[in-house]
Amino acid sequence: MSRRLRLALFWAAAVVFAVAFTAACTGLPDFGTLSHPYGSRAIAAAFHQRTANTISSVNFDQRAFDTLGEESILFAAVLGGLVLLRRARDERLAGVRRGRVLPSTRMFGSLLLPITLVTGVYIVAHGQLSPGGGFQGGVILATGLHLAYIAADYGVLKAIRPLAVLDAADAVGAGAFAVLGLVGLAVGAAYLQNVLPLGTFGQLSSGGLVPVINAAVGVEVGSGVVVLLAGFLDQAVEIVSPTGKDNGAGR
């Protein structure tokens, strides 16, 4: 494709997008108005579905199909990162040297690791009730696990990091979101429609399908972040370049 043709296609698409974007913006309520139709409908729907956290209701119920696309993007990003970071034929693994850590860093890291993991599980489990959810809790879980790297060294992180299990959990979590959408189709409703018992408002078992999808997202995000960081850490710590020099500091 020639440069002139690419530019022509770009400007044609840009004009269509500009017209559509302008038409959409002109239909929005004025700034400072007391009318918030989208917010009012979203909150009403959240209460109707007995989901105390309106954000989780929007993400995993009202617009769950959009969130499925976002989670798929994250899964594809992790997969693409691993493909790019895989060990090349002319690279080899080197032994990991143990690093020196201050006693205070070791103490605080050891104390915060279990606390952070419990906090991450709490954020994921209570995503339908309070601020947080699978995306936020998954990142906290991955961060908590890597406190072992800060408090000790890379060898300790590798020992407590079941990479093969987390790799499979990443795929299972991403696939579970898509499969859970079939529950609605199985009972004659729409894909990803919230058809499970809604429970009691404000209780851990409330929200119907929301906490189940939220848990799948937490597993996918937490596992995916750990697996992706493993690829970067391997490059920085273990992979030896073709020249025979370490790529990282050897922690």
Automatic annotation (TrEMBL):
Record keywords, A-Z: Cell membrane, Membrane, Signal, Transmembrane, Transmembrane helix
Keyword Cell membrane appears in the UniProt entry: yes
Signal sequence region: 1-20
TM annotation in the entry: 72-88, 108-129, 135-156, 168-192, 212-233
Membrane topology: Multi-pass membrane protein
Pfam families assigned: MnhB
Subcellular location: Cell membrane
Coiled-coil ranges (or none): none
Major place of residence: membrane
Protein name: Sodium:proton antiporter
